[in-house]
Amino acid sequence: MNALKKTANYTRNHNIQLDILYVIDSTILAFGNFQPEMSSQQKRQLKEIYEKKMANLVQEILAEGSSMYQVHSHIRFGDPRKIICENFLEEYRDDLIVLGQPQFNQLHRALTGSVYAYVTKYATCDILTVR
Predict the structure, then answer these.
(1) What CATH number does the domain containing 80 carry?
(2) Which pTM does this prediction carry?
(3) Which of 6, 102, 118, 122 could be cross-linked to 85 through a Cys-Cys bond (beta carbons 3.0 to 4.6 Å apart)?
């Protein structure tokens, strides 16, 4: 949230487009379950939950003075590392990725790898980390 607020202030002050991406890590959701992939119903339910959360975040940003033409939210399913570095950047051609400090524990990071480490290695644009 801290990274998002700082980024929203910066984009508002410099009249820059803000793409907010939330990746639902389906690799972690399936970890420990007997089904290798989420059903379409499960994905739809999760997407609805996160769309509401994203809509609330966008409303907060708009209430602070950003233009509705400036702020865009996106939800994707998959491996966050691949979605951020490959799929999303190819589709939107953003110039800067802002990452917040991760909140995961050491076990999670050991099982999935660090999103930050992957993004800093493979992203084709600049990266800014906010603590």
Answers:
(1) 3.40.50.620
(2) 0.79
(3) 122
